From TrEMBL:
The keyword Secreted does not apply. It comes from Halorarum halophilum. Residues 23-81, 82-139 form the CBS domain. Transmembrane segments: none annotated. CDD domains: CBS_pair_ParBc_assoc. The keyword Phosphoprotein does not apply. SMART domains: CBS, ParB. This is CBS domain-containing protein.
Amino acid sequence: MSSSSGNHDFSLDTRRAKVKEYMTRDVATVSPDDTVREVAKEVVESDGHNGFPVTDGRTVVGFVSASDLLLADPDAPLFTVMTDDIIVAHPEMNVTDAARVILRSGIQKLPVVDDAGNLVGIISNTDVVRSQIERATPEKVGKLMRTLEEIHGVTVSEERRTVELADLIPTQARVYADELEGRHYELKRGLAEPLVVIDNDGTLVLADGHHRVMAADRADIDEMDAYVIVIDDEIDLGMQKTARKEGLSSLADIEVVDYARHPLVETTKRFQNE
């Protein structure tokens, strides 16, 4: 995402996310002449694939799932067992429309083809969920940018970049162990929303995403995607004062609370018991 001024409109209506922004471009495919045995072996040896687009050259001619292979003759060519009447998406299609197709059809992945019918990517239900998460984050960023400009009388800009976790100054003294489990699940599936970081003239202050950061740290992840609010001339940032007051200078200073549940979880539990 390109940098923008503090007057940038971050409302969701102005950013119509397209399939091409979230699809996987490096797609594993199989040939219609491959045998069931060969493709079944690829499913077993792959990292989480439960099916493949079937292509003749670059043209999509079908899709084969693990269930299509189960009872098939191992020596049968793939074109005899694949599904050849498949739903595809276009890279310019809105992600919300792709989500409707995935939801209503019950499929997990949509091949993405260009105007010539050539395969250019694939979008999954996981990609759709990620797109909705990431589209919500700019609202937080826009609100924080406007707040900083109003309080401190400065002009700020915004960038999307990767940040080193070791460089971050936390502003939250504790996180909850049970919520870390959820954030770890999201990280493994690529669903974690970007962090929100303030670059105060070179000092990186973590404004949002402490549970995500701690889950990543536990998983030996060194860097994460972030929306970075850039302040060119250093200001006396209130959250930095709070961090200094609480002795927070690195992730190691954050306490993981394992004897209490997150307040929202406790509230929900209380409602369920009433």
